[in-house]
Amino acid sequence: MKKYFFDEENSNGSLSDSITILNLPFLGVSKEAMKLSGFQKLMLNMLVQMYKAKPFVTRNVSQLLFEGYHDPLIEALAKAKNKTMLPNNTFGFLYGQNGSTADSLYTVNQGNLDVSKILTIEAIDNRTSLPYWGSKYCNMINGTDGGQFPLPISREQDVYLYSAELCRSVNLRYKVDVVVEGIKLYRYTTSPSLLAEATVNPDNACYCVDGNCLKSGVMRISVCKKGAPVVVSMPHFYQADEEFLNAVEGLNPEEHLHQIYIDVEPMTGIVMSAGKRLQMNADVKPVNGLTGYEKMPSVIFPLLWVSESAAIKPSSADKFKAQLQKPIATGYAVIFALLAIGVFILLCLGAFFIIHAIRNKSRKGVIANRGGAKLAITDNSGPASEKLLTKPVFA
Length: 395
Prior knowledge:
Mean pLDDT: 85
Number of strands: 16
Number of helices: 7
Distance between the termini: 104 Å
Helix content: 10-25%
Strand content: 15-25%
Radius of gyration: 37 Å
Structural class: alpha+beta
């Protein structure tokens, strides 16, 4: 179960602070208005004016996040259509999620038949592929949930995980070795190719919604967010096309603040620290005949960005090192010691045989034949001398 608490001490502000932000429910109405006939749009405009709906609203932080705020226009439209448009006709970015259980049911491989597939996701809500995208490739479910990865872990190979926020599988690429709480880890990060436009990375063509492809660094996810005009990116449009960054003011992308990363312990595949940073944006377009949206610019409008980070606690790191790393290091030390002893013994044996061979060569040799043989007496100081034996050597 997910439970969120407000940490006032580490926050720059309070839940009662007011913020003026794009009116997301009204934005959703504007997208539907594009499909309406002239008469239907006229009736919608009457409701918009009656309930004084505006493209921007001012609400406090608590209302925008978990508490939510009631939207009378959405309530009126829901009654007219006889359908639910928002839970309790209330909008909040995280409304209803505090104290909620997991969004989906994951079926995970236990690695009994193939240890290289341990913890990889086999199905989500009993589906072995995703229902959102335009091809079998983009709908593939690859990798784990990001908490641990199957072995072997290599600097040369990407790691894969499924991202519920992006509604797709993603790959992260090795970047650098890092040390967290005395544990050596491999850091993996997203590469620009992950959200690159189709002309740069053709594999991303099937993520274009209705054939409408955006430039690099952003991705429409309306197909998996109940049609909401939501576009996801890295915070401050990090790794995105400059067009998006130049369209708004106040953004300053920085790698160390806005990059997604995971730090993996290579012997176990366990993630020891991680940072997930994502920005939610609205896909805004002008709508002819709709009050408030007739002169709106076409822009990917930033709404908020989220940074979720975690790292192993010092006490847990000490246990990990004591229970795994130290025994392994001790084992390696024993192996190296045995190898050293073995090499020493081999050197001693080699030296023994070499010395023995040298001694044999330095001895005087005797060549004899039965019944009158020649005796060859050899020393190392000169040529051999010979004399005739009058008796057999072996008599």
